[in-house]
Write a structure and sequence with these properties.
The chain is of the alpha+beta class. The chain contains 17 helices and 32 strands. The strands form eight sheets. Strands 3-5-1-13-10-11-12 form a seven-stranded mixed beta sheet, with helices on both faces. The protein has a six-stranded mixed beta sheet with strand order 7-17-16-15-8-32. The protein has a five-stranded mixed beta sheet with strand order 18-19-27-28-31, sandwiched between helices. It binds dioxothiomolybdenum(VI) ion. Dioxothiomolybdenum(VI) ion is lined by residues 210, 241-242, 245, 347-349, 351, 505-506.
């Protein structure tokens, strides 16, 4: 019997074999006739203007076809588009090569195009520029004097009750400054674009991004194309985590070069150039927490500042998460940004929450110690079924179960609360915990399900799979809905010409697309039934739709499985070569607006600290996750593992180290910008607690892409305190801070 997976089955990735055998082509791997290669030349100063640029030697280099600079680039609508504003995912990035202005170190100043990558790279080394330098600042502390709250964020800067009085009367309180370093985006696949120039006024753009249609709209607008003349394909994406929500600058450069030279062009960023675009902003946050004798929070005051660039205002929700998780009568919330001379920051896995909730949860740990209560007990004492800021009830919130199950699996009961009290051999051992919270989102999505005469079911949508498992779960949902084995499902996504789907972002894709696929398959099932019901001499006899089931490639009568018809025969019966149905999900209709929607996690961490060297190892992590229904426990677990590993990086390693005199990131390579490698990752235990939810989304799914990082960094930081007795309020915690 063939296996028909359905929702809840731990199916292995359907695209796994394609990926490991190299058959899955990424943006920088597509071939085109007469393909040219572009290599980016980056600015050497952080601010000023280009006094002169000399590309003559590059132009004389064998194999170099052209060098694009602000002096000779073609005029396209992009350069006339309005400058600045919010760094929305629907807005094009900073207009590179528009003029001689330099606004950050590493800003592209030229694109050398050659007949081979090597020729272009050789040419790029020979481009020289001189600059008129201007004063710059890349230090957030030094920019705090110019902090401001952007208009759209002002409404979140709330004052409720009386923080001063409440904290004066508190049983325990803490007041401290916390920090998170600027982090860089480092998916395995670097940003790349291949523009295929067809010569008939149309182009195909293979681009690394998180939304084929968003990229299509951006690029079409910027370069004067439309949906008939420019299409975007992003079939395979090697991780993105927010860095591809809007197409990155190499896509614009590849388009510019293709238009100028009327040729196909590929531009791939180097790992070092990956440090010259979106990143998680640095954050400085002042936190006051106070609680009463029962350990209930009585005051929360948060003043947070994140960095942005000089030319766009990127904002995050830093201050909302703690007060959402833990209702509190006295609140003072104040968020602002300060501009520094860097590229514009952008979304990076759980943007806002990864920063805001992790810092908040370190403060919560401090409050637990100030009050003399177990850190888990403090969270439980402040648990609420209501959203702390809006007061709305939740569609579902199994966080208490997550606390209980996580603590049980981790063995939290065995913990000695005293810092420096636990040891493993010669090492200090510490146990810490934290709460995680993230949004549960439904975005617009649609899908088409087509069954052909061979019995192959194809699911088509413009949706993207950024490595998260979209292909797999879409196939799985379709297989379950129409009773087909996985081998008979094809998933066609990552193509802007297919039925519309929003960005793969905000952990929304499984929730939204999953429901659209299920709905499209449900419609198709009904069409198949109707086709049989209307036929003369139906092999099923007279039955109602609710009396049949789809199983093993057949539609059959539930009570009498001997009465069946093969799905291929139904297609034949229809007289066409295939049958298809399309369906959409609309957040306004398919998800409630009168209730709060979040995912939650309880994260427990064990660290071991070498007392002489200050080296910290995260020897155990337990994440108990409440995220609605889990479509695929295997791929969902992988998402949580990935988030947790990024949490280890955030807690102990990731930091953009600037030389502020140069305004330049000095550790701009993966040798020096540390991210966790296998040797840094020990046991990670993931458990999904049951969380039935019928109001959040049609399938009861909430999404798991981001929740794994929220709380993890704090749990580790809190474990470091428990191990060492030393409270570090700055992430990452590096060994110099522990000695
Ligand atoms: Mo994610 S930061 O929503 O791509």
């Amino acid at each position: 019997m063939t296996i028909q997976p359905s929702i809840g089955t731990p199916v292995s990735r359907v695209d796994g074999a394609m990926k490991v055998t190299g058959h899955a082509l990424y943006a920088g791997e597509h071939q085109a006739r007469g393909l040219l290669y572009g290599v980016v030349v980056s600015a050497a100063v952080a601010r000023g203007r280009i006094a002169s640029i000399d590309a003559s030697r590059a132009r004389r280099t064998e194999g170099v076809v052209e060098v694009l600079t602000h002096e000779n680039r073609p005029q396209v609508p992009w350069f006339d588009m309005e400058e600045g504003g919010s760094a929305d995912t629907t807005k094009p990035p900073f207009r590179i090569l528009r003029d001689d202005d330099i606004l950050f170190s590493g800003q592209p100043i030229a694109l050398v195009v050659g007949t081979s990558f090597e020729a272009a790279r050789r040419g790029a080394m020979l481009v020289t520029a001189s600059y008129e330098k201007a004063d710059h600042n890349t230090c957030l502390d030094a920019a705090l004097a110019h902090r401001y709250t952007p208009e759209k964020k002002k409404k979140n800067n709330t004052i409720k009750g009386d923080v001063a009085t409440a904290s004066a009367q508190a049983a325990a309180k803490i007041e401290q400054r916390y920090r998170l370093a600027m982090e860089q985006h480092h998916p395995m696949e670097m940003h790349a674009t291949t523009v295929e120039w067809h010569g008939d006024g149309t182009v195909t753009v293979y681009d690394k991004n998180q939304g084929s249609q968003n990229a299509q709209e951006q690029l079409a607008q910027a370069f004067g194309y439309d949906s008939d003349t420019l299409k975007v394909l992003n079939s395979y994406v090697g991780g993105a985590f927010g860095s591809g929500l809007r197409p990155a600058y190499q896509a614009y450069l590849a388009m510019l070069a293709a238009i100028m030279l009327k040729r196909s062009v590929r531009v791939t960023l180097t790992r070092q150039q990956m440090f010259t675009h979106v990143h998680r902003p640095a954050c400085i946050e002042d936190i006051i927490l106070a609680c009463d004798g029962e350990s209930k929070l009585t005051a929360i005051a948060l003043k947070a500042t994140t960095s942005t660039s000089q030319f766009e205002t990127y904002t995050e929700n830093i201050i909302g998460w703690g007060p959402t998780a833990y209702p509190c009568a006295n609140l003072r919330l104040d968020y602002g940004v300060a501009a520094i001379d860097t590229p514009t920051p952008g979304n990076m896995r759980a943007p806002g929450a990864a920063t805001g909730m992790n810092l908040f949860e370190i403060a919560m740990d401090e409050l637990a110690y100030a009050k003399g209560i177990d850190p888990l007990a403090l969270r439980q004492a402040n648990y609420s079924d209501m959203h702390g800021l809006t007061g709305l009830p939740y569609t579902s919130k199994a966080l208490m179960d997550a606390y209980r199950e996580g603590a049980e699996r981790f063995g939290w009961r065995e913990r000695n609360r005293e810092p420096r009290s636990m040891r493993a051999g010669a090492e200090l051992m510490g146990w810490g915990m934290a709460t995680g919270i993230w949004d549960a989102l439904v975005l617009k999505a649609s899908a088409r399900a087509t069954l052909d005469e061979r019995g192959i079911l194809t699911i088509a949508s413009a949706a993207s799979d950024i490595g998260t498992g979209t292909y797999t779960i879409m196939a799985q949902i379709a297989a379950g809905a129409l009773g087909l084995p996985l081998e008979r499902i094809q998933v066609s996504i990552g193509d802007s010409t297919l039925p519309p789907a929003a960005l793969e972002g905000g952990s929304s894709m499984a929730t939204s697309m999953g429901a659209a696929v299920d709905r499209a398959c449900g419609k198709l099932a009904k069409r198949l039934f109707d086709t049989v019901a209307q036929a003369k001499d139906s092999p099923l006899g007279i039955v109602r739709f609710d009396e049949v089931e789809f199983c093993e490639g057949r539609m059959r009568v539930i009570e009498d499985p001997a009465r069946f018809i093969d799905l291929r025969d139904i297609v034949a019966l229809s007289g066409a070569s295939s049958m298809n149905c399309e369906a959409s999900i609309d957040p306004k209709k398919d998800s409630t607006n009168s209730k709060a929607k979040n995912t939650h996690a309880a994260v427990f961490a064990e660290v071991r600290v070498d007392q002489e060297l200050g080296i910290v190892r995260v020897t155990r992590l337990t994440l108990a996750v409440a995220a609605g229904r889990i479509i695929n426990p295997k791929t969902a677990r992988s998402q949580i593992l990935g988030g947790a590993v990024m949490g280890i990086g955030m807690a102990l390693q990731e930091k953009s180290l600037f030389d502020h005199r140069l305004g330049r990131i000095m550790n701009h390579s993966l040798a020096e910008y540390h991210i966790p490698c296998n040797a840094d990752v020990y046991d990670i235990d993931v458990v999904f607690v049951e969380e039935p939810d019928s109001e959040m989304s049609p399938l009861g799914v909430k999404g798991v892409g981001e929740i794994g990082i929220v709380g993890t960094a704090a749990a580790i930081a809190n474990a470091v305190y428990h191990a060492t007795g030393k409270r570090v309020r700055e992430l990452p915690i590096t060994l110099d801070m522990l000695l």
